[in-house]
């Protein structure tokens, strides 16, 4: 979602800035990808996780390891953790975020980052920011280390998984980039114009008014209790002409041809996830609500770009097939992480029951006869 904040006018003397509020992920205007117009790949039988991984395997070549030149140390080191159901969770502001921060989850976040870059055709963002931004904030910044996906795709593939803040800092050396997160999972060495702060974006911001050129946030669904408050603080801290961008996906899979049935395991699972996250007070499925909240906070010219990303390689289109392969891998590997705490803590299921429904969902996610997609 992308949109600007209004500049001072005679009609609006209180407004200080024209900012644009980022849009959820969208198709390029020149090359939209409506899945309803894409043919399904009917060659072969239903895919399973291994066949999806083989598609990912063939899509990428090995890359070299980052030398780490021109770096500086991360200043915050908070390495206390909580453990539950075999997964590791953050300790700072314990219980505010229900997804783990262990190595398996970090690998999933890295895959999601790559999936987003594929969706945006290699771009890091959509907002028309200044050529030489000076100060940038990345909310919920995630990981930023050299990651090996060897365990996942059976190939010695190393990739610099791109924490968004590090890649932005490399691309825009003029910018001082701040990445905030509840978990200290960032690398010890970063570009000199990037710093990480262990912070809760839901607390009162201490940044000066009109100080950021660009604020970026991705997949905050399920982690923010009071989005209007967060947007008000973002509005206050953006400079005149600055932009804010939200990249969110709908946590509700769909199909345009009826192949995703109402009585499917996927439908049952996502209904329970929506109920649990709503009860928890931090709803996952918030993508459709971002636009009106941005407007209510004072942002103008809000642009909501929407992509339809397949959940396995069912389309015939080569690019969509690759997106589906990565989307499927991220979901199949990460469904436990996004589900476990919501089901056990909020819905009070035992872990065995959770594993049963997740096994059914994984099977359907990899079924090429189910033409499901996520709107991002």
From TrEMBL:
Region (Disordered): 1-53
Gene Ontology molecular functions: methyltransferase activity
Entries under SUPFAM superfamilies matching the protein: S-adenosyl-L-methionine-dependent methyltransferases
Domain of life: Eukaryota
InterPro entries: SAM-dependent_MTases_sf (IPR029063)
One Pfam family hit: Methyltransf_23
Leader peptide range in chain numbering: none
Protein name as annotated: Uncharacterized protein
UniProt source species: Coleophoma cylindrospora
